[in-house]
């Protein structure tokens, strides 16, 4: 039997298993668009905690937050083919979440108008505070909750993203889906109201 020539020999194929941490958002998005369920799950796991925490603080109600986060995940995966910049999946996911938070605030307003809800849900920022918060700090957070509850949803969301979530103004505008000038006006209106009702003083830019 003729011996195979060395030039025809092939090196064994080496398969490298890559974890989600080794893949960028862009790579995960591309794989998810191709129907890779593992990549979809990896994207959700990567950004879930940040989005869920932000939604909980914006709404001040854990049950509402769970519903909104679930809706956000479903919308993110459904709209993934339309994402223009796969590197910006986190901010895009946050924008979807903020849009749904806004709708939840409108729903609360409608229910109150129909007499089906008495006011803001129990909880708020005070209930989400860490155990390290003092009674005075919790009382101040409760005052802040009441002040924020009287704001228009758009102003409340913008102010909270800026001063509670500590987002840069550009990210706040992106999350709210509006211009930088518009988001600055919303924050200014909300800030004037908050300062009139709470001793809390946001840091200046």
UniProtKB/TrEMBL annotation:
One of its GO terms (biological process) is DNA-templated transcription initiation. Keywords: Sigma factor, Transcription, Transcription regulation. Gene3D superfamilies: 1.10.1740.10, Winged helix-like DNA-binding domain superfamily/Winged helix DNA-binding domain (1.10.10.10). Residues 143-190 form the RNA polymerase sigma factor 70 region 4 type domain. One of its GO terms (molecular function) is DNA binding. InterPro entries: RNA_pol_sigma-70-like (IPR039425), RNA_pol_sigma-70_dom (IPR014284), RNA_pol_sigma70_r2 (IPR007627), RNA_pol_sigma70_r4_t2 (IPR013249), RNA_pol_sigma_r2 (IPR013325), RNA_pol_sigma_r3/r4-like (IPR013324), WH-like_DNA-bd_sf (IPR036388). SUPFAM superfamilies: Sigma2 domain of RNA polymerase sigma factors, Sigma3 and sigma4 domains of RNA polymerase sigma factors. The keyword Transcription applies. It comes from the Bacteria. Residues 43-109 form the RNA polymerase sigma-70 region domain. Belongs to the sigma-70 factor family. ECF subfamily. This is RNA polymerase sigma factor RpoE. It comes from Sandaracinus amylolyticus. The lineage of its organism: Bacteria, Pseudomonadati, Myxococcota, Polyangia, Polyangiales.
């Amino acid at each position: 039997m003729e011996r195979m020539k060395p030039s025809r020999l092939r090196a064994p194929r080496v398969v490298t298993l890559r974890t989600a941490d080794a893949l960028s958002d862009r790579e995960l998005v591309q794989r998810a668009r191709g129907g890779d369920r593992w990549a979809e799950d990896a994207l959700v796991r990567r950004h879930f905690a940040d989005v869920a925490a932000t939604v909980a603080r914006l709404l001040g109600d854990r049950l509402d937050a769970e519903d909104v986060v679930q809706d956000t995940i479903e919308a993110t995966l459904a709209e993934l083919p339309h994402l223009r910049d796969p590197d910006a999946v986190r901010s895009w996911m946050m924008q979807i979440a903020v849009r749904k938070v806004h709708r939840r605030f409108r729903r609360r307003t409608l229910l109150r108008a129909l007499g089906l809800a008495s006011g803001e849900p129990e909880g708020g920022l005070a209930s989400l505070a860490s155990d390290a918060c003092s009674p005075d700090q919790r009382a101040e957070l409760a005052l802040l909750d009441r002040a924020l509850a009287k704001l228009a949803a758009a102003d409340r969301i913008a102010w909270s993203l800026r001063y509670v979530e500590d987002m840069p103004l550009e990210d706040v505008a992106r999350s709210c889906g509006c211009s930088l000038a518009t988001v600055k006006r919303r924050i200014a209106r909300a800030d004037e109201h908050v300062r009139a009702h709470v001793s809390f003083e946001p840091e200046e830019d």
